[in-house]
């Protein structure tokens, strides 16, 4: 594998010329697709390599690389040259030489998923260690891309999907760590960067990557949106640093351990969480308890005398229960109508934070179509998957979950009209900024795109005429 250690920052929105690629010949574990170039932006989005491991041999990682691969320097053993799809076997113990061999008893700990799963151990070690050898060189290739994107993290058009690929699926850790620095929270609260990173690694690992929608990418997107909102003048000038800290923690943890099915499903199948939380805000209560447990496990905030920390975090996460939207919105609307919302009043500030959390959670239809369309496809895929499971077990199919009678356009139209628009209209009254107007503009424009996407091509053509 040939790796260049000094690479200039490459723009992510343009294909890399072939001659540059040939000269660099760089391939990294998590490199941005931009490095591999290609004629179309669509191809830019495709990863050309991957990593896997064999559970029978946990000391070895397999790199799967597309194209002609040549090795230089100490690194992966047994390189394969010339094959169109090369597999390079990497001695994992050499990557992490000071970790020592995998303990024979380690497999016995598998059942304690929440504490010491193989994946969490693997990820956290990988992120906590000082990079060494080939990994260090590989990191440099894509760190340039990530840095370039993070410079624009306050942009409403931030491409979270590309960012996640550029960070090799570690978008949540990378972005949130950066935002803590950016808001000065790490310095102000004297947060231990190692604890912060290990907390974020655990958070990321506790999202289910198999869920099309409720996974760590959604949490990263919500966190990025939260950051954009926190920078709005109404909030930036009135919220305390403690408010901001809690808001970021709530955003990044608000869907922890989401099973990919809704509360109705858990209640109807007699899931233990439904019994535990008495069929009320079942998932949100679980996300909150998971967040508290990971905060404890990491010890991140242990040194801070923040009173009611857990309760305040809980009330932000519980506010994302969509079935309670009208209750929150009515309170917010009343204050706006009476014009008596005072950001000096802690209870009013907290209500505003809850509304901010709700906005961040369901802002995906307010993103630019390029991003919004991906979210609507993902959420529909998750709904339909639940419907498939219900059909398979002879249960009644939940609303919006039947792939035979529901469609993405239909689901989005209802969601936007009844849920998103009422919330963002009030938000716009509260924070009347260019960002708010932009979000509303996308919200009104996106259904038009959706409608066109669902039309047969011939009909779409006739409409254009
Ligand atoms: N684009 C979307 N289309 C339809 N429903 C959505 C969309 N985005 C979010 N939701 C729903 O809004 C809910 C907010 O709370 P949850 O994350 O529990 O589950 C979410 C989805 O059910």
UniProtKB/TrEMBL annotation:
Highest taxon above the source species: Eukaryota
GO molecular function, one term: metal ion binding
Chain positions recorded as Zn(2+) 2 binding sites: 255
Binding site for AMP: 214-218, 255, 361, 412
One Pfam family from the record: PDEase_I
E.C. designation(s): 3.1.4.-
Record InterPro entries: HD/PDEase_dom, PDEase, PDEase_catalytic_dom, PDEase_catalytic_dom_sf, PDEase_CS
Keyword annotations: Hydrolase, Metal-binding
CDD domains, A to Z: HDc (cd00077)
Enzyme class, spelled out: hydrolase
Domain PDEase: 126-465
Binding site for Zn(2+) 1: 218, 254-255, 361
Cofactor note: Binds 2 divalent metal cations per subunit. Site 1 may preferentially bind zinc ions, while site 2 has a preference for magnesium and/or manganese ions.
GO biological process, one term: signal transduction
Cofactor(s) this protein cannot do without: a divalent metal cation
Keyword Transcription: no
Record-annotated active site: 214
PANTHER family cross-referenced by the UniProt entry: CYCLIC NUCLEOTIDE PHOSPHODIESTERASE
Family, similarity comment: Belongs to the cyclic nucleotide phosphodiesterase family.
Name of the molecule in the record: Phosphodiesterase
Organism name: Gadus morhua
Name of the coding gene: PDE7A
